[in-house]
Sequence to fold (455 residues):
Amino acid sequence: MRNKILIGLFILGSNTLLKAQNYLGGHFSTKEAILSNTLNPAAGIAGEMKWQANIIGLNTEVGNNYFSINGKLKGIAKNWDKDKYVGQNLDGKRKQAHVNLSVLGPSAFIRIKEKNAIHFGIRARAIVTANDLNQDLVYSLYNHFEDILSWLPNFTDERATAAVNVYSEIYAGYARSFNFGERHALHTGITAKMTSNIFNAQFVADDINFNKIYTSAIDSAINVGNSKFNLDVSDVIDDGFKYKFGANGFGVDFGFIYEYKLKDSKDHFVMVGLSVNDLGFNKYKLGKNSRSFIGNGRDIPASHLVDSNGETNNIDEVLDSLGTKTIPTGTRKIKLAASINLFADIRVVKMFYINTNLQFNPYSFKKGTAIANLPIDITVTPRFEHRIFSVYAPINYNQYSGFNMGAGLRIGQFTFGSSTIITSFAKKKFSGIDFYFNVGFGKSYKDKKVKKEKS
Fold:
């Protein structure tokens, strides 16, 4: 990787964070199958669609627990000023970061004899995560990246991880319903995925020490102790970006939904579901831009690290001065952004429902591992749902960006919305914004009444 790309990875690991869920708020509807299946692969068969075809969908989410936007979205969009509107959260807590972008391509859901269904399609995903960062390190990288002598004075025995996982997937799945009497049903589903890498990188740092030592009025020294890090970067950018389609990994989703129906109706009173999504990994080959480093414990004069204009030297020259740098080779594995989802969907009155969803990442508690993962997320979504259209009002808590409120709308099989749009227009200070849309077409069941047999 050229030095600019290397710098970009460090910055990427220190100043972006996204929400977790795809299509947050509009991700579950019994009148829609394909988006619902991304939450739980049993959701489509539990709904009311006979078949559905998807054309294109986009989900992008932005937020963080270090940076904030100070000012209402309506005002700042007209006159953007970074110095005026971007704030830094200096609360002393560890900093996290996550980016989630997905493009849902052509895909389909087909019900077979009411109790069986298949689904298949293609999707591209980009997930970036930085975990457990020291606030002073983030501050120094953001404010003084080009001037190492202006970094905050001391980091001791610190650690940090970051990962980038950009890939495409081809998926196919099967779902099945089991009825127990007239009012009880169990829905199951599984989705298998073949993944193809676009770009991958992982960064792990341990025992980070950074100490500025003032030796004289003329010069100072920097000592990084025995700091060490590994930066693993895929080889697709070695000689310009050259994407090659191939099978680089796999993933699997599986889920279960219990449904309790209204009397003499196909409509549910309550649905309760559990799913595990994106269990799997991608495998990539290391490129020439990968780096391994360990500090040599020596005091390095600052004059060896900066040029005559006071700017930091080429980053490889700095690393060579501070310790021993090597170029690793071989292959690496990066885990997919696995998540566990628990949800309940309750019918309050006719055409009005409340959905609650808890998402958490099974890798959240494994510090020191570079995984492009998802944060803990809790969402409550009241929704008005008709066969032709639905209205969503998601209320969300994210472990990094706090509480947000949004709105969404489905008209036929066209869905769009944002889980933060109300917050971003109403609050003078917010730390996240997202947007999604999806376009498709399909056919659902019209009659939800159970026909009684004549005596």
